[in-house]
Amino acid sequence: MDERGLDSAPKTFLIYIENPLPIPIISFSCPSDQGGILSRIPDASEADIVWRVPQTAEGGAFIAPGDLIRFDGSDSFDADPMFQDRSSTDMSDPEWGGIIDWIWDFGDASPSSSGPMVWHSYDRPGEYTVRLTVIDGFGSGDSNTTEMKVRVSSAPEITTTSPIATDYVVVGELVNLSGEARDDDLDLGIHAWIDDDALFDSDGDGDPTNDRDRNLTDTLEFNWDINSYVDDDCLTLEGCDGNTRNDWIGVNQTWTEPGEIRISMTVCDGVGVCEFRDYVITVLSLQDTAPPKTLADLTLADLTPGKESAGLLALVALVAILGWMILRERDDEELDAMEMVKKYDVDEVEAEGGLPGMDQHSPPPQPRYLTSDQRTNRESGYVRPIRTRRK
Fold it and tell me: 178: domain range?
């Protein structure tokens, strides 16, 4: 009604209420058997499984290659008011959250998965983006997507060329083993920690999944095995574990026997990704490290062969005798030359081109002219030529 008391013409308003998009929520955890994180899906009957949450400061996951991680999207819900405070994934449940499908992309070119809860592991180090797309039941289905990062740790890089400061060590000497390594995760400034029990709120803030129970990117762990060929665990009550490089000892070490010892250094990061390298340590006896004696320091005992050198001296003598016997034997060419000397009655026969020849011996004397008396003397050796008359 206007100021004159007359009714105004009716006016119609069309209001369109857009369906609110579903809200995707991702949480994650890793199964553990009180030791390391498992690489298999645990059975529901395993009562000793503990769920751990290794996470970065940005909220992503921080795991080792091969570690199994469980992604959970069951807390996702439809933003329609009728689904408020509901989280069931069963459409027949009165507490159904309004989500009809969950689609997972793990960011490593592997096939996508579907369902409110999925399992996955990564084989290669690097950073991956996990995306969850949820679809609600309104009409043909509205969808919404969220994502999180997964950092797969890389192995440390050992930069140590020698674990000792000298070229060798001496028997009984206390040696300090030292090593250096670098880690890509530390170089990139990644900060990560782990909640050792996702069901227990150790810091009392009301969220049992965000407790910083242990630092994962603080420092690297260095371990030493003084003999990488022998499994020292075989000498313990637990017995051999089949690994000859994990018999850890302290950084201060001594050796009681001289020789070359192969030791192993293993460097691990906070999630158990390790790298090892072997080194050869030369251990010398006190006698080996003594300075050499001068001529003035030598005594009769130093010049007298000991029992340990008797065998070597006998071997040298035997080799010398065999060599003399071989050298005194004449070869075929020498024998041929000797025969030629006897046959041709020459003083010297030279070899040319590797073969003995007769063209190098001294020539015979030039024939003389015989007198008439010598020609008729039979002892002169003169032979009268035969003369014939021509016809």
Answer: 154-183+220-292
- Do 53 and 168 have their domain in common? no
Answer whether residue 347 shows pLDDT above 80.
no
168 Cβ contact list (under 8 Å, min separation 6): 281, 282, 283, 284
Residue 118 lies in a domain: yes
SS3 state at 290: coil
- Side-chain-side CA neighbours of 99 within 13 Å: the count stands at 31
Q: State whether residue 232 is helix, strand or coil.
A: helix
Measured CA to CA, the distance from residue 263 to residue 279 in angstroms comes to 5
Are residues 148 and 235 located together in one domain of the fold?
no
| Mean pLDDT calculated for residue range 107-130 | 96
Q: Into how many domains does the chain fold?
A: 2
Do 147 and 229 have their domain in common? no
Rounded to whole angstroms, how far apart are CA atoms 336 and 328? 16
The residue among 19, 21, 17, 20 whose CA lies nearest residue 134 is 21
**How does pLDDT run across 262-312, given as a tens digit for each residue?**
888 999 999 999 999 999 989 898 766 655 556 666 676 666 666 667 777
Same domain as 232, residue 127: no
The pTM assigned to this predicted structure is 0.65
Model pLDDT, residue 69: 96
Give the span between the Cα atoms of 75 and 90, in whole angstroms.
12
Task: Give dist(CA 276, CA 267) in Å, integer.
Answer: 6
Find all residues with CB under 8 Å of 40, minimum gap 6, and list them. 68
